[in-house]
């Protein structure tokens, strides 16, 4: 019995097609854990949709995915001098974010990342004049800009891309191809209209693979159900049960990503108040699990184990049976499934 990712395949692929129509020339992104689907599955999907380039996170991912995807592979993590060499075919394109990095990739295919308001990495405007000589020794595929999701300064994503386009033009650098991230379809259309001789290529992962939340669902199989009464002791730490009910062992533990949570940026009083409440409950060993039974998310009876979780279902709710599956609200990018089922 397993933690299973169920995929409504027809619905999932219909959503993919809607994104492809909005972003012609899209470059699908397959990085990390493959957005919960795995590298092999997303490589197959990218091939099926006719993608000529697939973006990956690291050179190590490129080394694995090259056997599943026959087109070009764009490595998003910038090249760094002195990095561990990884044997890769010529169809791999490296991102680079410094003049020194360009000089270290003689003969390679490169995409030059420019510094955006993300302030993460990229070539600065001051470094553009130094690029001319360095670019003579590489095969330039284009420039790239990675944009923030939110903007608080009154500018738009289009404004930022336009500013960089003009800076590249003023520096007499080629603008035949611009790789962009986190643009809306209408913003991309505006840029294409304003710069008809530039090929804008959107790198998209989350919106492509996870944009239709109802197309996928995680479910954990119930492995054991044990009736308990108040003050019974259980588990590794022999805690006391808070009341009558059942201890439910369900597939899905820390090795799957259950119980792991990435920090969130909270905006507004209500989300902050909920965060404080959750933290307070956690100090009392009260942690809400991602598993749902009888219409409610159920509490962890104790911290999740490596491959299973133990939940407490109170006596006022019906007890699940061994073999039942509990829906689990899990984050795709931090979850590893045991199996995937298309239906």
Helix content: 25-40%
Instruction: Provide the β-strand percentage band.
Output: 25-35%
Measured between the Cα atoms of the first and last residue, the distance is 18 Å
Biggest sheet character: 8 strands, parallel
Low-confidence stretches: 272-284
The overall pLDDT average reads: 93
Our count of helices gives 9
**Globular, elongated, flat, extended or rod-shaped: what is the shape?**
elongated
Strand tally: 18
Q: What is the alpha-carbon Rg in Å?
A: 24 Å
Order of helices and strands: EHEHEHEEHEHEHEHEHEEEEHEEEEE
Decide which structural class fits the backbone.
alpha/beta
Largest sheet, order of strands side by side? 2-9-8-7-6-5-4-3
Topology of this protein?
Layout: E1 3-7, H1 9-22, E2 27-28, H2 39-48, E3 53-56, H3 59-65, E4 72-75, E5 92-96, H4 99-103, E6 109-113, H5 128-135, E7 139-146, H6 157-170, E8 177-181, H7 185-194, E9 199-204, H8 206-210, E10 216-228, E11 233-234, E12 239-240, E13 245-251, H9 269-283, E14 288-293, E15 296-300, E16 308-314, E17 325-328, E18 339-342
Parallel strand pairs: 1-18, 2-9, 3-4, 4-5, 5-6, 6-7, 7-8, 8-9
Antiparallel strand pairs: 1-10, 10-13, 10-17, 11-12, 13-16, 14-15, 14-17, 15-16
Helix pairs in contact: 6-7
């Amino acid at each position: 019995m397993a933690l299973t990712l169920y995929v409504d395949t027809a619905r999932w692929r219909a959503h993919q097609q809607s994104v492809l129509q909005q972003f012609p020339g899209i470059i699908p992104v397959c990085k990390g854990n493959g957005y919960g689907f795995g590298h092999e599955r997303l490589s197959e999907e990218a091939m099926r949709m006719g993608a000529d380039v697939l973006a990956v996170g690291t050179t190590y991912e490129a080394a694995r995915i090259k056997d599943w995807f026959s087109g070009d592979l764009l490595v998003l993590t910038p090249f760094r001098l002195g990095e561990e060499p990884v044997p890769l075919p010529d169809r791999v394109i490296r991102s680079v974010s410094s003049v020194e990095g360009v000089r270290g990739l003689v003969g390679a295919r490169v995409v030059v990342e420019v510094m955006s308001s993300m302030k993460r990495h990229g070539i600065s405007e001051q470094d553009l004049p130094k690029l001319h000589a360095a670019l003579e020794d590489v095969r330039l595929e284009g420039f790239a800009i990675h944009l923030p999701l939110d903007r608080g300064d009154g500018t738009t994503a289009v404004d930022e891309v336009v500013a960089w386009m003009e800076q590249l033009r003023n520096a007499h650098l080629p603008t035949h191809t611009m790789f962009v991230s986190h643009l809306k379809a209408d913003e991309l259309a505006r840029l294409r209209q304003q710069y008809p001789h530039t090929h804008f290529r959107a790198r998209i992962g989350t919106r492509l693979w996870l944009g239709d939340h109802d197309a996928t669902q995680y479910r954990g199989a119930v492995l054991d159900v044990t009736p308990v009464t108040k003050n019974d002791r259980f588990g590794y730490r022999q805690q006391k049960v808070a009341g009558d009910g059942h201890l439910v062992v369900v597939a899905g533990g820390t090795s799957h990503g259950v119980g792991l949570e990435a920090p969130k940026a909270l905006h507004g009083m209500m989300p902050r108040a909920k965060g404080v409440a959750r933290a307070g409950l956690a100090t009392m060993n009260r942690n809400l699990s991602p598993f749902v039974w009888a219409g409610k998310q159920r509490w962890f009876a104790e911290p999740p184990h490596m491959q299973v979780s133990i939940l407490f279902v109170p006596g006022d709710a019906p007890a699940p049976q061994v073999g039942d599956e509990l829906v689990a609200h899990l984050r795709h990018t931090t979850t590893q499934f045991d199996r995937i089922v298309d239906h």
